[in-house]
Amino acid sequence: MKAFYITTAIDYANGSPHLGHAYEKVLTDVIARFRRQMGDQVHFLTGTDEHGQKVQASARKRGIPPQQFCDEVSAEFRALLPKLAITNDDFIRTTEERHKRVVRQILQDLFDRGDIYKAEYQGFYSTRQEQFLQEKDRNPDGTWPEIFGEVTAITEANYFFRLKKYQGWLVEFLQQNERFVFPKYRQTQVLEFLKEPLNDLCISRPRERLEWGIPLPFDEGYVTYVWFDALVNYYSAVVDRPGIWPATYHVIGKDILVPPHAVYWPIMLKAAGIPLPEGIIAHGWWLQRGSKMSKSTGNALNPLDLVEQFGADAFRYFLIREMNVGQDSDFTPEQFLVRYNSELANNLGNLVNRTLNMTTRFSGGVIPPAGEAAEPERELQELWAKTAPECVALCEGFQFHAALERTMAFVTATNAYIERRAPWKLGKSAAPADQVLLRTSLATMAEALRLAVALLQHVIPGAAAKINGVLGYSPGGVWREELAWGARLSGNKVAEALVLFPRPAAPAKP
Ligand code: MSP
């Protein structure tokens, strides 16, 4: 079986991880967990991007060798993963030999095929963006846009990759593969970009200017341009593992879609005769007061602060519930608290507490069998019969925020069902009909909770496992079968209580 191979972008090892980096890992993990549930053989890769100007400059600033600097920063990114409950199968560093070997092979191969050539370059260079600039990149008043930092005029011999030669092929490929980029409107942007003629890509940097990179196999006087090196990680990590390449999805932020992932990468693969990935998922940005969260702006939130305060489940839940994949979202501590309190603590937490508490009080802690379903039960079951397939379809289409909204609406409906049945009243009555209703209501709320958890587990895996645990339940191997309303919990002994989402001591740190 071909693996479902999913990757995140590899983070620049030039500073600490922030909330934007954490989001990408969480989103990719949610997709990975969901696909595993659906029966796919998932391979999930993440890692760090360690060469290039930015890393070299950051290491110099710290006064330590770049490798030592990368070791530290990469370890920090790696340590974040278990704290966010990320289930990656591998972690690649571009300074590893397994990666460098493949980059050199591909470069040599493209050089031998004539797709890499040497030429004199005369023009402008932005050190901050590690990019050659053209006249068209200037502001209308002739100055250079802020994002380029200091721009210098240079003349130097360099190696170029024949992008232009493949432009027509790429346009045709994108027209034939309309779903290559998700969301679709981003694919349109790629095609817009390709309306202008492409320039060949400069893929070398003279060693005098940049030492920290992979030397070109055919000219040791140069190192490889960082993007040409970094993109190859997706392939180098799995080249020795049969059945994984091509990637199913590369999950990346919208800032690195055009041109690196949607133009350079497909053309590099095409030129090297390597099969293309099936698709790219480009997510939006986490903003703070309207501007992109980033290290350089100084408005970055440390994800670990939130995880320590609220737990990994609440953190994951918020990011996935709040963000519509592809669009931007503003992070505010207020909104975090609202969702934490109303959706997790009050809605889900309340259903858990009521189920445990009432089963303990009225049924000796054992989930009873349900009697015949009457109207309130039927209504809830009908809502479930709609909710489950809708949520599966939404998750298949990466609409996780909408799936969570519907799942939570089902939890709300279950709480409303409990109000309507009022087991605490039924428990006071000795009438046999009321006793049957009481058992039915206890069985119904427990089953509804089990089902909601099955739809939530890829987002809040820790809480889901705990809830299943207090219900005395271990889910079976086939997830889709778990979504059928039934009587799987009948006879289970439940725990008396579970504190899942305690009220925080203080509001979320801004
Ligand atoms: N090293 C390159 C990627 C190479 S992939 C072969 C890079 N690194 S990065 O550290 O700058 O960004 C890593 C990922 O985090 C990117 O996908 C980027 O879009 C994402 N994010 C960085 N800031 C972000 C937000 N504020 N919000 C959401 N994600 C953003 O680019």
Helix-residue proportion: 40-55%
Question: Mind summarizing the main beta sheet?
Answer: 7 strands, parallel
SS field, number of helical segments? 18
**Cα-based radius of gyration, to the nearest Å:** 27 Å
> How widely separated are the two ends?
46 Å
What is the molecular shape?
A: elongated
Assembly annotation: single chain
- Can you identify the CATH class of the largest domain? Alpha Beta
Structural class: alpha/beta
Strand content: 5-15%
What is the domain tally? 2
Corresponding CATH architecture of the largest domain: 3-Layer(aba) Sandwich
The CATH topology of the largest domain: Rossmann fold
Bound molecules: 5'-O-[(L-methionyl)-sulphamoyl]adenosine
Indicate the mean pLDDT: 96
Question: Could you explain the architecture of this structure?
Answer:
With 510 residues, this protein is α/β, with parallel strands linked by helices. It folds into 2 domains: 4-283, HUPs (Rossmann fold), CATH 3.40.50; 332-482, Isoleucyl-tRNA Synthetase, Domain 1 (Orthogonal Bundle), CATH 1.10.730.10. The protein contains 18 helices and 17 strands. The chain has helices at 19-37, 53-62, 66-83, 97-112, 167-176, 184-193, 226-230, 233-236, 257-272, 303-310, 312-322, 333-363, 375-396, 400-421, 423-426, 432-456, 461-470, 479-482; strands at 4-8, 11-12, 42-49, 90-93, 116-126, 131-133, 151-161, 181-182, 201-202, 204-206, 215-216, 219-224, 249-253, 279-283, 286-288, 291-292, 329-330. The strands form 4 sheets. Strands 1, 2, 3, 4, 8, 13 and 14 form a 7-stranded parallel β-sheet that branches. Strand 2 (11-12), helix 1 (19-37) and strand 3 (42-49) form a beta-alpha-beta unit. The protein is elongated, with a radius of gyration of 27 Å. The protein starts with a strand and ends in a 28-residue tail after the last helix. The mean pLDDT is 96.
